[in-house]
Amino acid sequence: MSSSDNGTNPTLRLQGIGKWFGSLHVLDDIDIDVKTQEILTVLGPSGCGKTTLLRIVNGLILCERGEVSFKGEVVDGPRPEMAMVFQNFGLFPWKRLDQNIGYALRIQGKEKGEIDRLVSHYTELVGLGGFEANYPSQLSGGMQQRAGLARALAAQPDVLLMDEPFGALDALTRETLQEELLRINEAEPKAMIFITHSIDEALLLGDRVLVMTPRPGRIRFQFETGFGRGRDLEEIRGGKRFQALRHYLWEAMRNPEEEPEPIPDLVIE
Amino acid sequence: MATDAPAATGVSTDERAFWERIKEPAVYVRLISLVVVIGGWELMGQTGNIDPVTFSYPSAICVAFWDLIASGQMTAAAYESSQILVAGLLIAIPLGIVLGILMGRFQVFEYAVDTYVFALYATPVVALAFPIAMVLGVDFVGKTTIVVFFAIMPIIVNVYHGVRNVDLSLLEVTRSFCSTESQRWRDLIFPSVVPYLVAGLGLACGRALVGMVVAEFLMSISGLGALSQDYIADLELDKGLAPVVLLMVVGIALTKVVNICETKFSSWRVRQES
Ligand SMILES: Nc1ncnc2c1ncn2[C@@H]1O[C@H](COP(=O)(O)OP(=O)(O)OP(=O)(O)O)[C@@H](O)[C@H]1O
Ligand SMILES: [Mg+2]
Questions:
Q1: Domain annotation covers residue B117
Q2: What sign does the dihedral B69-B73-B74-B80 (CA atoms) show?
């Protein structure tokens, strides 16, 4: 990290993003900044354009309005500093688990020893050790999802784009990986955009939570969770602030039309 | 009988495996069917219900088969036929793959040639035998060309569909991780085309055999086609049918080879089923 960049300058800047699929207006006027080490969690009803937003940030599709910039450079296509965890996993059915996880590394032309080391590290990290020789069809949905996560982590990107990466996991694995993700964010600072349908998860992981409205997808509101770095998930869960924020988000999701009673000392943008 | 250690029962593992296999319907139903059909046919022949001038029966064909091999006629004819078959396939397979890939991947190329390809696909290739003979002659080149025309169509069409049906979400994965075009071919496009290609090769081998016989009947008469035709014309049906039996066996063998290739190239698919 350079001296001027102490984890607060935006790594990722989205300005006035507008997207149409034909006549369908999917995203409207999306402005988001994500700082170098920030985790932004995104909540929003199904079909409000979350996946579309990530694809635009990744440079996979163009937007009709606005632009995305990464460290000041306009994003006009995919770049190796970003990695995506796909909602539908996106594993190659004819590659073994280890080959799938090492995919990005091979694309980057890393040498074999380095690839093997990183692959085995991230395979263990997501709890898939011992399944290296299996093909995706021989893995459960949750295991495939973890493989997709390991593939993106192994690429060691500066920006990690995660599209409901824990959606298919059991509660216990989910919790383990949430802790792991926070630990990774601590050890190797990354800007993360994390899409989820779980309010708890959005609060536990997010430095900032952003809620979207559908048709067209707009930013409804966002706020800093304020739980701080190196947080202990158990402690947060039991805390008053978590409960209050959770209640606030539930109310907001239940009534798409009106904003809930504000909470003291919470800055809603 | 005890079913644990083979040594204790005195039954060798090989023998045991054999009886295990026989118990599968896939094996015994086929065996019974073969015995009934071939046995019935043979019985008709033995009881004098088949006129040897118009048709024959298994044991007579077997004897004729052996005679033709002993006299060297069968081997010579098979050698002659196999030259155009192998040459035809050696041209049709790579050419079909390349054309299919170009059509599937490059829109301009597709627009330029798809009219001809699909017109040819719909045309009975037999109808092309005479124009081909006029242009390329009735010998090796002309005959091989017929085999190529018969065999190449399913390869082109299948490979084309394989390239076209590449999973778009995986295409996006390769783009997301900044894959180069050549890496994309290796990681995504070739593997997705393999099952289509194998299906195409199976069809192509069958059609190549048909093309071979058609060429031998319609152009300068030669090989197994000639052998069969000559004896049928002489009303020696048993000898006339022996080359046909050989063609069947070759057809089945080619299909088997293609299946084995498929298993080798798509182990991930096979394991999925087991
Ligand atoms: N390639 C496309 N062509 C046309 N319409 C599309 C395309 N991709 C997405 N859409 C439409 O855009 C809208 C947003 O889709 P998107 O996948 O971004 O939603 P999402 O918020 O990720 O939903 P979910 O939570 O169910 O994953 C939907 O109405 C969808 O039908
Ligand atoms: Mg989505």
A1: yes
A2: positive
CA-based nearest residue to A28, from A60, A52, A55, A11 = A52
Distance A49 CA to ligand 1 centre (A): 5
Residue A133 predicted with pLDDT over 90: no
Please state the pTM of the whole predicted model.
0.77
- Ligand 1 proximity of A48 Cβ (cutoff 6 Å): yes
Domain presence at residue B8: no
Residue B195 has pLDDT above 60, yes or no: yes
Q: What is the pLDDT of residue B158?
A: 92
Q: Which residue of chain A comes nearest to B192, CA vs CA?
A: A94
In a domain, B41, yes or no: yes
Class assignment of domain A11-81+172-262?
alpha beta
- B84 plus B215 within the same structural domain: yes
Closest in A55, A93, A106 to B268, CB measured: A93
Q: Tell me, what's the ipTM?
A: 0.86
Please state, in angstroms and rounded to a whole number, the distance separating the CA atoms of residues A224 and A40: 9
CB contact under 8 A, A104 and B272: no
Is residue B157 within a helix (H) or strand (E), and if so which, with residue range? helix B140-164
Q: Which residue of A has its CA nearest to B171?
A: A90
Cite the residue boundaries of each domain of chain A with CATH code 3.40.50.300: 11-81+172-262
Q: Is the pLDDT of residue B262 over 80?
A: no
